[in-house]
Design brief:
Blueprint (H helix, E strand, L loop, with lengths): L3 H7 L4 E4 L11 E4 L14 H11 L5 E4 L2 H12 L1
Antiparallel strand pairs: 1-2, 2-3
């Protein structure tokens, strides 16, 4: 995969969201997912307990890019999926 476009297509769909708790539990202000928005676990936008439990216990079940900007989160996701 020499072409960035080819790589993005390989991890489609991509959803980047602003972290509800500014990275307190996820480690970054933005998270990037290779999922449609409606497939992202509800706990990510849940209350304190749901959100923290997801990032402390369940996040390894998903490829999640984390960063302080949307671009950093996308790059992290690309690295993890690759």
């Amino acid at each position: 995969m020499d072409n960035k476009k080819d790589f993005v297509i390989d991890i489609y769909p991509i959803t980047i969201i602003c972290d509800r708790y500014s990275g307190s539990f996820s480690g970054g202000k933005f998270t990037a997912w290779n999922l449609d928005y409606d497939c992202i676990p509800l706990a990510v936008n849940g209350g304190d307990i749901e959100h923290s439990t997801f990032f402390f216990n369940d996040k390894d079940e998903y490829n999640i890019g984390i960063g302080s900007t949307p671009n950093e989160a996308l790059k992290d996701l690309m690295r993890k999926v690759k």
